[in-house]
Amino acid sequence: MAGSGKFFVGGNWKCNGTKESISKLVSDLNSATLESDVDVVVSPPFVYIDQVKNSLTDRIDIAAQNCWIGKGGAFTGEISVEQLKDIGCKWVVLGHSERRHVIGEDDQFIGKKAAYALSQGVGVIACIGELLEEREAGKTFDVCFQQLKAYADAVSSWDNIVIAYEPVWAIGTGKVASPEQAQEVHAAVRNWLSKNVSAEVASKTRIIYGGSVNGGNSADLAKKEDIDGFLVGGASLKGPEFATIINSVT
Ligand SMILES: O=C(COP(=O)(O)O)NO
Predict the structure, then answer these.
(1) Residue 163 burial (10 A CB sphere; 0-12, 13-18, 19+)
(2) ipTM of this predicted structure
(3) Residues 86-104 pLDDT 10s
(4) Cβ distance 183 to 225 under 8 Å?
(5) Separation of 95 CA from ligand 1 center, angstroms?
(6) Is the pTM above the cut of 0.90?
(7) Is the CB of 125 within 6 Å of ligand 1?
(8) Which residues, 6+ apart, have CB-to-CB distance to 182 below 8 Å?
């Protein structure tokens, strides 16, 4: 398994940054003191991965924000898992709500991407999460379990998967899920894994929360039994605050 820490915190930089701003962010991360039992990854835009990989401390791994569904070749505009490995990526974020609801990727497409990435030895941060209208309609569990099933139907091992529960209504809105709301879904996800995969997978798979996490709310979220870390967007672009979040999970 890529990373053996009890906890996992990812920084999803999304489509943000410049060479200059990323150089400053990397410098801040390199000078941070980070808790030892937290696996930490950052996910730069593709075009900055090489810069980050060649300047960031080895304490922090690199995740890509997406990958092609199979081996490279005549797929204009795509980036293969092999190429991401070649430049030092150990992880890839898949199934992010922005890929589902903005780009239009469906569950099966995402599941196949996850299976291929894992087959090449790259870990998968497997995102799931419901829309506000789905939550308001009482469909949160149905949606998350459907997305989980698509991963489970495609992959043959869970050793290199971290599940990220990211309620879409909390992403980028400042409306963070309450610790109780997040714990309820994390516990249901873990129970689903136990019933549909195995008790061992349910026990060892890290389930992380994403959606308006910041240095002020991460500690309360991290106290919950089934919250094993975070996938942080906006706050991960600020090195000191991202370090505060990382150090709050233990
Ligand atoms: O999309 C997110 C969360 O973003 P924010 O922290 O900005 O809500 N993580 O992948």
Answers:
(1) buried
(2) 0.99
(3) 999 999 999 999 999 999 9
(4) yes
(5) 13
(6) yes
(7) no
(8) 165, 209, 221, 224, 227
